[in-house]
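ok here's DUF416 domain-containing protein, seq below lol
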Amino acid sequence: MTDRLPVEAQLRSLDHKKLAAYCVAVTERQFPNFVLFNKLVEFGDLKQLETVLDGVWQSLVPGGAKMNFEVQLDRVDANMPDLDEHEMYGASPALDAVVSLYSTLICILEADVDEAIAVGNVSRECVAMFVEISEGDDQMSDVEILRLINNHDLMVQEDEFQEEVVERLMNIKQMDKTFIGELRELAHNQGVSNIGISDEDA
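and the structure came out like this:
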């Protein structure tokens, strides 16, 4: 893993609304990880989180519906799995998805670029952990594990995805309904998450 988010410098040049768009796109791509966990262990209120996620997207469309995001913070927080209570690996990427949604709301409320950077890092760290757990072994040195993670297809795809989102945001002057729809479709990734799973795996 690199210490710095590859798109950090570009994020610092984006305005408030574009930061929110980046956050929700990265969160959307992680969301199947929570959906699968929800189905497997019947944890959390999936409908509630889907409503919040959709509300963020709608709020980015000019003239779109507005949601009270401050009220939603507690609802999102209540859907964070406790890793001490859920020992299965799937709890961790599920938690990452909900943490990213929470940080997205904070980014909207406070226009905080550091929250956007945190969302990007959470998603990359989720991929890194998945690669290390699924393909690493005790015989590998730290350098070998880092090389495995950084060169892995999933990490390459993650970085390419984040770069694509930022590039689209930097190249658009005014986000409209069509742009937001296309960005969401990119982030939805045909229902496949950043670690290559979909809720159909349940």
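fwiw The first helix runs from residue 8 to 11. kinda neat tbh
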